[in-house]
Design brief:
Blueprint lengths: L5 H6 L5 E6 L4 E6 L3 H9 L2 E3 L5 E4 L4 H9 E2 L12 H4 L4 H15 L2 H11 L12
Antiparallel strand pairs: 1-2, 2-5, 3-4
């Protein structure tokens, strides 16, 4: 396989999405993988920094709804919910939010299940070399 150029990498459409039926809401929701910037912002929202910049506390408050708000998109890939909409979105069914968050985690490579899935897909290349060689 040929090495990619910078231009090929930046032009690649690598944000997977999945349409998830949500019968409780009467339709289907599109969930898209996080970009690097979005993942950094989501992860940053889960920690509280002290005056010296060190992590003082980790919070699980809004972890699922924050992820869902950042990954539920329209047909053009644009977010349906802003950060300001999270309070309203947080009033929806916890079961639905968890279901959508699970899809977002999988698509974005977050968590133990995503790591195990990635490890299962890795291995050796046809020439027997490790993918990291």
């Amino acid at each position: 396989m040929a090495l990619l150029t910078k231009d090929q990498i930046t032009r690649a459409n690598d944000l997977a999405h999945e349409d998830v039926p949500v019968s409780e809401w009467g339709g289907t929701v599109r969930v898209r993988a996080l970009t690097g910037v979005e993942r950094d912002a989501w992860e940053a929202s889960l920690v509280r920094l002290g005056p010296n910049g060190s992590v003082q506390a980790r919070s699980t408050k809004g972890v699922r709804v924050g992820l869902v708000a950042r990954t539920v998109v329209d047909e053009d890939g644009e977010r349906l919910f802003t950060d300001k909409d999270m309070t309203e979105l947080n009033q929806k069914s916890a079961a639905v939010i968890e279901r959508l968050a699970a899809v977002a985690r999988r698509l974005s490579g977050i968590g133990k299940e995503a790591a195990e899935e990635a490890a299962g897909k890795s291995g050796t290349t046809p020439d027997g070399a490790s993918p990291s060689d």
